[in-house]
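Board notes, transcribed. Complex of a protein with zinc ion.
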Amino acid sequence: MTDPVTLDGEGTIGHFDEKRAENAVRELLIAVGEDPDREGLRETPARVARAYKEIFAGLWQEPEDVLTTTFDLGHDEMVLVKDIEVFSTCEHHLVPFRGVAHVGYIPSDSGKITGLSKLARLVDVYARRPQVQERLTTQIADSLMKILEPRGVIVVIECEHMCMSMRGIRKPGAKTLTSAVRGQLRDVATRAEAMSLIMAN
Ligand SMILES: Nc1nc2c(ncn2[C@@H]2O[C@H](COP(=O)(O)OP(=O)(O)OP(=O)(O)O)[C@@H](O)[C@H]2O)c(=O)[nH]1
Ligand SMILES: [Zn+2]
């Protein structure tokens, strides 16, 4: 049986098999040589299942669920929200990557814009899925293009990947930067303006 997932009272969406996740975590604990029945671990499979339900909640959301509020303000200059905290999960190792996203767009001729918080919510929709940073970046850009029909979009993401810090190559502090630019933001001057805003303190 699966439970419906409800996210902060904001729409809905889909199913997460908590029991199956719990069983899998129990198996994993046995596989690594632990005793899942010892005192400290007894509640862990259920706890981890609940944590994954939250961490992967974006699998059950679509961008349209969060880009709900749009206004026609007639504002046709660039809007940029920078330093949006990102917590995501690397789909190769299922460990976190974290950092910041900068999301900007130039509204459509009619000036169709969205609430600023909705840009951060959009980042979360895609970050709360098993991800690679490149896909996270392009999904945010493409969904904004589709829904707001802006003249241009820029998304820049800077993250540290725990799979490179705590294991494997073990290079803590290395940052990965990815960008996606669409429409008018591909123009050299416009892109340079956006980048200078992103880089400014
Ligand atoms: N392009 C890209 N690569 C990623 C991302 N997250 C993790 N990786 C890389 O995915 C690759 C997986 O490589 P594999 O050789 O299959 O796995 P591995 O043996 O665990 O690799 P190492 O991490 O080098 O030990 C690694 O090079 C990771 O650094 C991401 O968001 N984007
Ligand atoms: Zn990884």
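The radius of gyration is 19 Å. Residues 133-148 form the longest helix (16 residues).
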